[in-house]
Design a protein that fits this description.
Layout lengths: L1 E6 L5 H16 L3 E4 L5 H11 L4 E3 L11 H10 L10 H15 L12 E4 L14 H10 L4 E3 L4 H9 L12
Parallel strand pairs: 1-2, 1-4, 2-3, 4-5
Helix pairs in contact: 1-2, 3-4, 3-5, 4-5
Length: 176
C-alpha cells in the first residue's frame, strides 16, 4: 500500500519535522512513500522513510523512468483548470504528469491509487490560485478519486488521529 507525501518547498521547519515523523510512522505501518524528491516537504517525508529503511517511489520530473502515458496525460488535463496542459512548457508539463504518478503509480494496466495524501501548502489546492503551487495538481487528482487528503497547515491533529487508527503492523498508539 502507498501514500503520497508531498508539498511546498517553503514548508515551515516545524511542519518539516512533523513530516519526517510521518515518514517514519508510515514506514513502520508498512506503507510505501510516493513523492517527488523536491526540496522541502518531499525530502522531509523521504528522510523519515529512509531513517526506517522504508520503501519509496520518488517521481522526479527529470527522471528517465517517467513516460507520459496517455492515462497520465488525461488525468493531468482534468486537474489543470487555470492553464491548459498543452500550452505549458515541457518541464512544467512533466512536473504535473509526475504528480499523477505520485497518486496512481506507473502501471497503465493496473493503476494503484495511494491510500491517502498528506501534504503542506499555503492555499487551497482545490481552488484557483498560486498559493498552493504544484502540489495542487496531485491533490486535485486525489480529490477526483475521493482519496483522503490532509493539508498539514490546517489539519495536523486530524491527520495524526487518522494515522494512529491506521491498521497494523505498527501498534504504537501514540506515534506523535
Amino acid at each position: 500500500m502507498h501514500y503520497a507525501g508531498i508539498g511546498s518547498r517553503n514548508t515551515p521547519q516545524a511542519c518539516l519535522d512533523f513530516m519526517t515523523k510521518v515518514g517514519r510512522v508510515c514506514t513502520k505501518k508498512g506503507l510505501t512513500l510516493r513523492s517527488g524528491g523536491a526540496v522541502g516537504a518531499d525530502q522531509a517525508f523521504e528522510r523519515g522513510c529512509d531513517l526506517e529503511g522504508g520503501q519509496k517511489e520518488i517521481w522526479a520530473p527529470k527522471s528517465q523512468h517517467i513516460i507520459e502515458h496517455e492515462w497520465a496525460i488525461e488525468k493531468a488535463k482534468a486537474v489543470c483548470w487555470e492553464y491548459p496542459l498543452h500550452k505549458m512548457k515541457p518541464y512544467t508539463r512533466s512536473l504535473i504528469i509526475r504528480n499523477m504518478y505520485q497518486i496512481f503509480g506507473d502501471d497503465p494496466d493496473n493503476l494503484k491509487p495511494v491510500k491517502f495524501v498528506v501534504f503542506y501548502c499555503e492555499g487551497d489546492p482545490l481552488m484557483q490560485g498560486k498559493l498552493s503551487g504544484g502540489t495542487r495538481y496531485a491533490v486535485r487528482a486525489a480529490h477526483n478519486y475521493l482519496l483522503p487528503m490532509f493539508n498539514l497547515r490546517t489539519c495536523q491533529l486530524r491527520f495524526a488521529n487518522y494515522l494512529k487508527a491506521y491498521p497494523e503492523p505498527y501498534d504504537d498508539p501514540t506515534p506523535f
